[in-house]
Specification:
The protein contains eleven helices and ten strands. The relative contact order is 0.13. The longest helix has 21 residues, at 236-256. It has a six-stranded parallel β-sheet, sandwiched between helices. It has a four-stranded mixed β-sheet with strand order 1-2-3-4, with helices on both faces. Helices cover 39% and strands 17% of the residues. The chain is α/β, with parallel strands linked by helices.
Length: 344
């Protein structure tokens, strides 16, 4: 299914090399989160993030429109869109009505985060050792969690070796973080697995459930990487590295936890899926997938929340010295950790 995104990438790269204007129209089925009785096509939905980078940043001279259809009079609607000019970057047809996306104030929000989490349950955090993941871990503890599962690719030495590690060891800071959690009487379980690998994930899930551990009642998906690359230099490897970490990883956990009765399935998405930046087709596409996955789960009656966070004043933004860039060039103040945790 990911090949459709690769095809779009290769086609757009070819268009950037052409002189003159040849408009590109992307036609999808059930990709938009516009109201519909149909199931959301997740990989098609991911292309909305891709298309917004093209429309707003990298393919403006060649952009036609994203046209999302619902199976009702598709050919007539497609011909209508191709025959008439429009200032809209994307349109979705639902029950013979053309809809366009707009950001509006949310209404009828659900009740806030519960004042207490279940002490007899476990909560799984991906990207737990990053700046954001560590904040989330502490928030969960403050809310009453007593058992955390920390998932990442890092291979830790055996616990018997931890006391002899020096400060220069690659795992030293992460082990110190684990100790700060355990000093708060938290049960910490480590899953040293690549979340994009179904076999490895299944191994940890099966092993965890077989040992009568606390039932997993929440997932907090904080994993993600950024590798900004302009279309002219983007290849499928650079695209997949960013896309897979978020999109495929979240999909694996959605499937792997399908038989677990979760209270929370929280995805850390990004405003980059809506307000785009040049060089982030891979990142915008991945975050659009997370947004669509949350909608798809809600359609199935499952818990899900995808948050399009703006830039944080910690983590990659701080490490790359981009705080002033976002403020001066994008008009976006970076979010302070205390503010973000209060919002969550």
């Amino acid at each position: 299914k990911r090949l459709c995104l690769h095809s779009t990438l290769n086609l757009t790269k070819a268009l950037t090399e052409l002189e003159g204007r040849i408009p590109l129209y992307l036609v999808t089925r059930n990709a938009s989160q516009a109201p519909t009785s149909n199931s959301i096509n997740l990989f098609a939905a991911a292309s909305t993030g891709f298309s917004r980078v093209l429309a707003q940043q990298e393919l403006m001279n060649h952009w036609g429109r994203l046209i999302d259809l619902d199976g009702i009079n598709d050919i007539a609607h497609l011909i209508s869109e191709l025959e008439q000019p429009s200032i809209e970057h994307e349109v979705a047809y639902r029950d013979n009505q053309a809809l366009v996306p707009r950001l509006t104030q949310a209404k009828n929000l659900q009740s806030p985060f519960p004042s207490h989490l279940r002490a007899d349950a476990a909560y799984l955090i991906t990207g737990a050792f990053g700046s954001i993941g560590r904040l989330v871990c502490q928030l969960l503890i403050n809310q009453g969690a007593k058992s955390l599962i920390l998932m990442g690719r890092t291979k830790f030495p055996g616990r018997s070796e931890w006391t002899n590690l020096h400060s220069g060891h690659s795992c030293f800071e992460r082990i110190e973080f684990i100790r700060t959690l355990e000093q708060q009487h938290i049960k910490v379980t480590l899953w040293e697995a690549d979340i994009t690998k179904e076999k490895a994930l299944k191994h940890y899930l099966d092993e965890y459930q077989a040992n009568n551990n606390p039932t997993i009642r929440g997932l907090f998906f904080c994993a993600g990487i950024v590798q900004d690359t302009l279309l002219s230099n983007m290849n499928t490897s650079a695209f997949d590295k960013v896309f897979d970490t978020k999109a495929i990883g979240a999909m694996m956990l959605h499937q792997g936890l399908s038989k677990t009765q979760l209270d929370h399935f929280v995805l850390f998405s990004s405003v980059a899926a809506q307000i785009t930046t040049a060089g982030q087709t891979n990142y915008a596409t991945a975050n659009a997938f997370l947004d669509a996955l949350a909608h798809a789960r809600r359609q199935q009656g499952l818990p899900a929340l995808s948050i399009n966070w703006g830039p944080w004043a910690v983590g990659m933004i701080k490490e790359l010295n981009l705080i002033d860039h976002y403020k001066d060039q994008r008009g976006m103040n970076c979010l302070q950790p205390s503010t973000v945790m209060a919002i969550l």
